[in-house]
User: Which sequence fits this backbone?
C-alpha cells in the first residue's frame, strides 16, 4: 500500500491535538511525546499546517534567530507526517552538505539512510526520512536537526 493512503489527519477543520494524535499513534505516542518535549531545548517551534497537495495536516519545525544586524531569520528544519501507528520526520539537506552530515555523531543505520537518499527537485536537495514508532532514532534526528541549524544558515 502507498504511504499516502495511510496518511492520517485528513480533516481540514480538525486541527491535530494530543487526544487525536494519541488515538492515531497508539503505542508510538510515547515517542511522539518524547520528541515534543525535546523541541524547546533544540530551540524549535513546531506548527501544524494544512497541506493542500496531500489534503492532510503536517507539522513544520522551525528555528528562529536574530542576525547581528537585528534581522529576524527563520529556517525550516523538518516536516512531520502522521500515519496509522507511527509518525515520520523528514529533514531535508542540500546535496553539497551530504559529506558533512555523514561526519555527525549518528548511528550507522542513519548514515545508510543518508547515503541511500536520492536527490530531488530542481535544487539538489535530499530528504533523510525517519519512520518513528519508538525512541530508537530520536537522538539521530536531534543531531541532524542541529547539523541543519549549523551548516545551512
Assistant:
Amino acid at each position: 500500500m502507498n504511504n499516502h493512503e495511510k496518511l492520517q489527519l485528513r480533516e481540514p477543520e480538525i486541527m491535530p491535538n494530543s487526544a487525536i494524535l494519541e488515538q492515531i499513534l497508539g503505542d508510538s505516542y510515547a515517542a511522539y511525546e518524547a520528541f515534543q518535549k525535546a523541541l524547546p531545548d533544540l530551540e524549535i517551534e513546531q506548527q501544524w499546517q494544512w497541506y493542500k497537495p496531500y489534503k492532510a495536516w503536517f507539522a513544520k519545525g522551525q528555528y528562529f534567530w536574530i542576525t547581528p544586524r537585528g534581522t529576524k531569520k527563520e529556517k525550516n528544519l523538518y516536516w512531520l507526517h502522521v500515519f496509522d501507528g507511527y509518525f515520520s520526520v523528514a529533514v531535508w539537506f542540500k546535496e553539497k552538505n551530504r559529506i558533512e552530515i555523514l561526519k555527525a555523531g549518528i548511528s550507522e543505520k542513519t548514515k545508510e539512510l543518508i547515503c541511500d537518499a536520492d536527490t530531488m527537485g530542481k535544487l539538489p536537495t535530499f530528504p533523510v526520512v525517519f519512520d518513528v514508532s519508538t525512541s530508537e532514532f530520536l537522538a539521530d534526528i536531534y543531531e541532524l536537526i542541529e547539523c541543519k541549524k549549523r551548516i545551512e544558515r
User: Anything to note?
Assistant: The mean pLDDT is 93. The longest strand covers residues 72-83. Helices lie at 3-6, 18-25, 29-38, 98-102, 108-116, 138-151.
